[in-house]
Amino acid sequence: MKDKIFICYRREDTAAFAALLHARLTEKLGIGRVFIDIDSIGPGIDFVDSIAKAIPVSALVLVLIGRRWNPPRLDNPRDFVRIELLTALEQNARIIPLLFEGVEMPRPEELPAELVPLTRRNAVEIGTSRLNAEIRDFVEEIERILAGDRERPSVRPLISTLQRPQSPPPLPFHQPSPPAYAPPSREPKIAEVVSSSPQKTTGDRKKGWRTGPALLAGLLLFTVSISLWSFSHWQKDKTTEEEIFHAEDTTSKEFAPEAPRIGITFRMRAFSENFVRERGLPDLGGGLELIGTFPGSAAERAGLVKGDILRKVDGEPISNLSYMSEKINKHKIGDHVVLEVWRGSRAMDISVPVENGFVVYKRSCDSGLAEGCDALGSVYQSEGKDPARAAALYRQACEAGKGEGCRDLGLLHEAGIGVTKDPVQAARLYEEACTARDGTGCLDFGILLENGTGLDKDPSRAALFYQNACSLQAWLGCTNLGRLYADGVGVGKDPARAVLLYDQACDAGEAGGCNRLGWATESGEGVDKDLKKAASHYRIACEGGDAFGCKNLGYLYQSGQGVQQDLKLAADLYDRGCKGNLGLACAALGYLYRDGTGVEKDSSRALTLLQRACDLESADGCGELGLLYWNGTAVSKDPARAFQLFSRSCDGGSATACNNLGVQYEHGNGVGQDPARAAALYRQACDSKVGIACRNLGSLYERGLGVSKDLQKSVVLYRQACSGGDSVACTQLNAGKAP
């Protein structure tokens, strides 16, 4: 029975439209009934053979044609679109050409003779001004065709009448969920209460968490040519895998019509080997990549162009993402800011006048340019402290077809800033932004789907929108999609495909993708294990501003894996990660100061770092801080405070802290004595392979404290503790002191 749909498209032409159509058809028809090359052909599978098998069982073949369909390429016998079309025509398949972006059907003389029959197939025009609605109508028509109600589609051809200004490719800015770190190795500090030593993290996620309004309000990012005010989807360590800052970000306390701007949008850029080679750059490590200038802005007039690498501002190295904004905001209207710009292998100084962004954007908005309204909204959001007015401007831009305006308005609704908090409305706006080809809107919508925020949780649909984001150069979408393939969530588990997606993201400068690529290379998941290459990937991620990359590279230098051991460099890398608001990196640096490893021993400094790690929701950081209060190191002994910190750490997933909490319950130190509760906590930690917790639980069974006395079970637990690396349990077993 022919009940499937085959989508034929050229990736550089209509990839985004194909992904959106695939998502809509899959929603209606179910997974497995829509064939699209990127999702339907696994690694190592013969492409031509897959097409030959898929088309005969397809009721319809949809041929997507846009402005870059490029008919001359069809003369190449190896062209995949040609192969698909020939197969469909030979099978006498029902073919429906879909025309996007106002293009017309190819003329017979433009096609090879064997493909001329395509020109006789009735085509459907899909207008991009109402893309979401028209795709929905078309999908409903397809449903009727498959049900046998219609002989041919009757979707009314529409042509977009709204001309929108072109904008630079949208960029990703947040991640959906908290990092998952591997269980840390353990080192006993006292007889039964133990400490966790540093361990690595991929920057990956287990559960979908998103940030609250208070954090969102403090992380707004503003733009000129793409009005990206953004909140970071802080994870448990309150850090993002990639952040985008704009030179327009200011925080003056009262609104004034003077908003220092030069009219640029940029992002932190990881410099992959391919990027350095293709651009002819020296080994700069990383920098800010210009992704756009506002039309008619000072930056555009000064000659700045998309792709420029910014390394210094007013002679000072750009140390982080917000530094550019801070420097520009210190200037007055009419001043000049001097930028060191790398274009290829050549460096140049470009002087750019600082102008009043409020005046420029208002004039642009008043003239009907949606881009100007979106940018003006960012000014009201930042300098004006008037999110309600910003929301109105974002809505105006959105209704004029500006995807970024829809997304910015969605961010306000999600956070409840200036408008009613409404995750359902936020989801609708993100989807609308996505249909307007705003890649970050696709990314945001995918995040909501993955987390189940304002929508039913649906990782399969999330994967489709991550794919769409990836196709629209929102590179974090590639990383997120890779993560789903690595974990087998919403898609079939495919580590090799995950690696390809990480590599694509990393090569495009998405530092989180470089970090994930490093993790895969270090662990040998989907790619050959190679610690030296892993270190290289982590280095690129770290230089690109990814705190996880700094943390993971620091771990390799601390342990001497893949690189020559260098404890001082490890400390420096942990410090960079900590300054990037990664709690795990702060904790790792705290351990070094606590033990005097690679740095001079400093208990007070360790206390400060572990407190910061705990404030950043690092479970291990809270646990280690609790241990300082338990032992009275750099602070007065305070078992009650230790109990609070161990509880927080245990709840956050630290099995070591659960053991330590059990000790307090067993002895009634800092909390009321409760042996049964202690036994439950020991069991939880023992199941997570904390050896000393198994010994502590064995001791309870030996004495019948909090559990029924069971000497046989006690011996089993002592052996488990010994196997888990607890030397005390091994000694007791060897000496015959265990029951």
Which labels suit this protein?
Serine Threonine Protein Phosphatase 5, Tetratricopeptide repeat, six-stranded antiparallel beta sheet, 17 strands, alpha/beta, globular, 739 residues, 31 helices, five-stranded parallel beta sheet
CATH class of the domain at 213-503: Mainly Alpha
Q: Regions with pLDDT < 50 over 5+ consecutive residues?
A: 149-193, 197-201, 203-256
CATH topology of the domain at 213-503: Serine Threonine Protein Phosphatase 5, Tetratricopeptide repeat
If you compute it from the alpha carbons, what radius of gyration comes out, rounded to the nearest whole angstrom? 29 Å
Distance between the termini: 69 Å
SS-based class: alpha/beta
Choose one word for the global shape: globular
* Percent in strands: 5-15%
CATH homologous superfamily label of the domain at 213-503: Tetratricopeptide repeat domain
Helix count, DSSP H or I runs of 4 or more residues: 31
Annotation, overall tally of beta strands: 17
Main β-sheet, in a few words?
6 strands, antiparallel
> Averaged pLDDT, please?
79
Detailed description of the structure:
This protein is an alpha/beta fold and 739 residues long. Among the domains are: 4-146, 3-Layer(aba) Sandwich (Rossmann fold); 213-503, Serine Threonine Protein Phosphatase 5, Tetratricopeptide repeat (Alpha Horseshoe). 49% of the residues lie in helices and 11% in strands. It contains 31 helices and 17 strands. The strands form 5 sheets. Strands 11, 12, 13, 14, 15 and 16 form a 6-stranded antiparallel sheet that branches. α4 (80-90) links the parallel β3 and β4 (95-100). α16 runs antiparallel to α17 (476-487). It is globular. The N and C termini lie far apart (69 Å). The relative contact order is 0.07. The model is unreliable at 149-193, 197-201 and 203-256 (pLDDT under 50).
